[in-house]
Amino acid sequence: MKKLLLVFLFSICFLPALFSQEAQPAAAGMSAERLTRIDQTVQEYINKNWLNGAVIIVYRNNKLAYYKAIGYDDAEKKTPMKKDEIFRIASQTKAITSTAVMMLFEEGKFLLDDAISKYIPEFKKQQVIEKFNEADSSYTSVPAKREVTIRDLLTHTSGIGYAQIGSKTMNAIYAKAGVVAGIGMSGNPVLGDKMKILGGLPLVHQPGEKFTYGLNTDLLGYLVEVIAGMPLDKFFRTRIFEPLGMKDTYFYLPKEKYNRLATLYTADSTDHAIKMPDHINITGDFNRDYPNTAGTYFSGGGGLSSTAYDYALFMQMLLNGGELNGKKLLSRTAVRMMTSNQIGALSLNHGDKFGLGFEIVTEESSAYTPASAGTFSWGGMFSSNYWMDPKEKIVAQIFLNIFPNPHGDLHDKIKALVYQAINN
User: Cα dist. 198→14, 149, 170, 215, 356 in Å?
Assistant: First the structure.
């Protein structure tokens, strides 16, 4: 009995910080008073009816500095936003898929410069679009100079475009072939079937020559299925979510959690926030409440839903160099590769670079943001945004849950308000 008591007392005293969901700004080296500026700024947007609500979480030095739900889940009913709301994280799924790919890379299953056709034969002898006919979506093409590699897919330099939300040309080509973006769909399509069709469609440009945001990570999700021999949802659950303690992250929610799905908003003609209709033409016939159903399509590029706390666990693992609470998913060298410039002279905003799944702040581009050089980040379609700053040891997640968001400048304001609250 005495031994059990000692174990219990030890566990209370030394539980990892991420088990705590009570903010302690001072312990994280941040000012509680200055962090309230986040509350005030978000509330201004809510008061102007530009936004219904938000959930924001910030860790620093492995300690919870800020975790709040502000405003309403349903503004009409005055239903308060809750911290454990489950949000559609859309393209934030890409970081998890990229992590899965790197886990398999570290198991010796493939090399990053392997051609994807080595594992998915439909991608052999690809073509690059030359001319496009809008009248019937026909096109002419030329052979690709080389094959698309796994590294090309991780860096969005393969030449694969996006379905439904990409360029007008590729939207038309993909629609004609039945290739989809992968979220909010009806019916029961299967990832592998769509990716095999994608292999026979033209690239936007020669592999490696440009950065083109596209269905690359959906294809990587199918690669994980092929290599691991299991559906992507099972790989995520058993290899990532369960080890990290991510209990609220799914492609399709279990019925007992339907009521926790955040209400999705959109903007009206005056740029004010209104509830999104049940069905809306975003990516074809988009079902607003798509995670609240059974489904068969596991989009590695955009299909997951999660909570701010769950996603913070995942981010802290990466910031820690691949490990969290004794569970090691990646080596620190894999994380270094993922957060290093992988696109050479190509650039994103203000000179940002791209690694294996993340946008990266450089010394040059850090002049435009409070985030330190080396910060890696991305976001999601429904106005979510996250970043990890290794220098300041910050993990931050913003969930706004509105599409489109005419007032997206709030993301940058919140980022500035996080950094101004640093004490030491």
Answer: 50, 15, 11, 9, 21
Note the pLDDT tens digit of each residue in 121-165. 999 999 999 999 998 999 999 999 999 999 999 999 999 999 988
- Between helix 216-228 and helix 191-198 the angle, nearest 10°, is 120
- Separation of alpha carbons 207 and 194, rounded Å: 21
Nearest C-alpha neighbor of 409 from the set 31, 51, 34: 51
CA distance 272 to 311: 28
Q: What are phi and psi of 263, to 5 degrees?
A: -70, 130
Residue 302 is encoded by which pair of tokens?
Answer: 């955009």
Q: Per DSSP, which regions of 134-291 are E strands?
A: 138-143, 265-267, 273-275, 279-281, 285-287
Q: In this predicted model, what pLDDT tens digit does every residue of 52-84 receive, in sequence order?
A: 999 999 999 999 999 999 999 999 999 999 999
Give first-to-last CA distance, the chain, whole Å: 43
Q: How far apart are CA 65 and CA 417, in angstroms?
A: 13
Beta strand residue intervals within 252-358, DSSP E: 265-267, 273-275, 279-281, 285-287, 305-306, 323-324, 327-328, 353-354
Using the CB atoms, write b or e for 97-109: b if 16+ within 10 Å.
Answer: bbbbbbbbbeeeb
* Residue 204 dihedral angles phi and psi, to the nearest 5°: -75, -35
Cα dihedral 308, 314, 316, 318 in deg (nearest 10): -140
State how far Cα 281 lies from the chain centre: 22
Tokens of 12: 């209370």
Six-digit token string for 265: 């908003």
Give the DSSP H or E segment for 87.
Answer: strand 87-88
Which tokens hold the place of 224?
A: 């994980």
Instruction: Answer whether 347's CB lies under 8 Å from 328's CB.
Output: no
Chain mean pLDDT for the chain:
93
Burial pattern 328-355, b for ≥16 Cβ within 10 A else e, equals ebbeeebbebbbeebbeebbbeeebbbb
Determine the Cα–Cα distance for residues 174 and 162; give it in Å rounded to an integer: 8
For 173, 175, 176, the CA distances from 137, given in Å and listed in that order, are 6, 9, 8
| DSSP secondary structure code for residue 30 in this structure | B
What is the rounded average pLDDT of the residues 240-244? 98
- pLDDT band for position 372 (50/70/90)? very high
What DSSP character marks residue 254? -
